[in-house]
Specification:
The chain is built from eight helices and four strands. The chain has 208 residues and is an alpha+beta fold. The chain has two domains: 74 residues, 3-Layer(aba) Sandwich (Glutaredoxin); 106 residues, Glutathione S-transferase Yfyf (Class Pi), Chain A, domain 2, CATH 1.20.1050.10. The chain has a four-stranded mixed β-sheet, covered by helices on one side. α1 runs parallel beside α3, α4 packs antiparallel against α5 and α6 packs across α7. The longest helix is centred in the middle third of the chain and has 30 residues. Bound molecules: glutathione. The site of glutathione has 14 residues, from α3 and α4.
Length: 208
């Protein structure tokens, strides 16, 4: 039995969706960031950085969303992560793009929004421009295909869809193209995604 420490709508939602996809036996622990539960003494023992996701299994805890997604997909032989070769390399590349490039680009905006430093508005504008540039890359990738890696959904598409839904929280317009929005519509239509949205009580706002 797994236990997922999550905060509604945050990056941990991608793991929640994957746990549904693979039909895993799991429990959820709401570690709501808005309520400061990620900074509780109990959770800091699991992740001293106070960040979700964390996945507990057999008395051990695993951190870092990209690694958790890869671990679960491999362990449960999920079709959402090809098992070898170029197809796997591409799926990992786009997962890492979401986890290590797009997610930190949004995080930078959120940090700046909370900052009281002089000149923060100019930095926020620049940071949002970078987010928009990354969405242009995604749109380019989707010109002739339905998903990031071709015609099949992979775990990167799920994380991409989760991250996109944060866009309305940034007070600078985030522009996401029609191909990406159509991808989000396909991804959120999956029963596993619908179930996670309902359980976390999150409204999805970015699909076309
Ligand atoms: N690299 C980490 C990033 C995790 C992360 O930034 N999580 C956010 C939610 S999307 C969080 O917990 N933020 C609260 C905080 O940093 O205090 C991962 O992929 O697991």
């Amino acid at each position: 039995m797994y236990k997922l420490y999550y905060s509604p709508g945050s990056c941990s939602m991608a793991i929640h969706v994957l746990l549904n996809e693979i039909g895993a036996d799991f429990q959820l622990e709401n570690t709501a960031i808005r309520e400061g539960k990620n900074k509780s003494e109990a959770f800091l023992k699991i992740n001293p950085r106070g960040q979700v996701p964390a996945l507990a299994e057999d008395g051990k805890a695993m951190l870092e969303g990209g690694a958790i997604l890869t671990y679960l997909a491999d362990k449960h032989s999920s079709h959402l992560l090809p098992s070898e070769g170029w197809a796997r390399a591409q799926a990992l590349q786009w997962l890492m793009f979401c986890n290590s490039t797009l997610h930190p680009a949004y995080s930078r905006c959120f940090w700046l929004m909370r900052s009281e430093e002089p000149g923060k508005d100019a930095f926020l504008k620049k940071s949002a421009e970078w987010v928009n540039r990354l969405w242009q890359d995604v749109e380019h990738q989707l010109q002739n295909q339905l998903y990031l890696c071709g015609e099949e959904c992979t775990i990167g598409d799920i994380l991409l869809t989760v991250i996109a839904n944060w866009s309305g929280n940034i007070p600078v317009p985030i522009t996401i193209g029609p191909k990406a929005r159509a991808l989000f519509a396909r991804v959120i239509a999956r029963p596993a995604y619908q179930k996670a949205l309902a359980t976390e009580q999150v409204e999805y706002k970015m699909a076309s």
